[in-house]
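Ex. 9. Protein: Peptidase S8/S53 domain-containing protein.
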Amino acid sequence: MRAFSLVSFLFVLLASHMAAARPDGDAQEYIVIPTNPNDQVAVNNTEYALFTTSGFWPVRFYENSRSNTFWLWTTYLRDVEIDGVLRLNGVSGLSLNSRLEDELYVPTAPSKFRSSASPMVKSPHTTPLSIAKRAIELDYTTQKDAVVELVSISQPNTVADPTRFKDYVFETGNGGRSIVYHVEQGVAFTGHPNEFLNVADTHLLTQLSLERGYPADVDTSDAPFHGTCTADKAVGQDYGVSKRATLVVVRMADLTLMEMMCALAEVILDLEDYPERRKRAVVTMSLGGPLYDVTNVVHNMIDGLVGRIIRFDVPVVVPAGNSADESGREQIDCVPAIFASDSNPLIVVGSTNTTGYRSEFSQTGPQLTLYGVGEEVTCHSDPSGLPAINKEGTSFPTAMVAGEIANLLSYDTVPFDTSDGNLVKNLREYLMNGDGSWERTPGIRSLWNGVTEANNPPS
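Predicted structure tokens for Peptidase S8/S53 domain-containing protein:
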């Protein structure tokens, strides 16, 4: 942690107090980029200028929770103050600190009327490749009478009717060597001790989470227990894909663009501290940012942070988004999913109904990697209540794909090339076109763990 002098401590205390009281009128929170973050005199002068402009002290953010290196500010500004701030010598740019979306879909009609009877948009690649055949002998374990979204993953690609299967058949090793970094506003794992059996001893907390005293095991998601539910789909015993992978919570304080950046920075720091986690870890983030603006420097900083993680040979899995049923928004259009491409192999996941047709809300486009079931989903959420049922959204298949990636990375022989710098792009190709998915309906490739009728015979 940073060592604070008394003056610095009082400054942070004052800044936190001022920032906590949101100003009246049309003021909104902005991320402010310094011209020279290493020039302490200029930083101090610019902070005072920002204060005199808006009446609120900016809050300093550092490169990560252990760093002494200043990175960015956040502060509240009114529309009439923007031009003046941009003219400050110590400011190189700013961006609205946009709210994120936890990709939980709130239905307006029964789900059976909201999935396409035929594929609305085809996956960008539909011809299976021969480069990634799962020619590996594996032992399998069966979870009897599993929830339908798990059953779909082990539905053999030779049987089109999903109703002929009731069990989830999975690799016996099931992620035992892997780490799942779960970026959210906490996970109530201590409230579900039997569901979350494999939890790391330490977790990653953003600067704001530390300052506010937010622990990893308290879920303060804007959509109640969204963090717990999505973590359950990745690593839960009853409802998760990877039963043995280790959960590391990456604790955000708020659902904001700044907190997404800080969370990704904590993952980067952890991978620098523990290089042995590279090639064995996956990052899952069931969150969507703002509409992408190519001129927005902060949006492109998100792209850069994701790229640094990928260069550590660690995949990042994000949702395609839930706005396809809004006019003009069928295509993926939000940060960070929009950054995915062959050269930037972010894993982007869409949603289908239980029979494999694309959900009406699920966005699509060339960035999409594959689909998973994102309707009628069941998960543990509030520790004081029963499991949540009938959840919908691209959040849930995102976490399930991350769970299956954890399984794949724990194989004795991983079924794709994992050489330095190639793991993530080859994983993406494997999921998109190889034996990590199959067309449960025409043009819609859904997550598959390679189980055949020999291990999972139909009824």
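Check your answer against this statement. The chain has ten helices and 19 strands.
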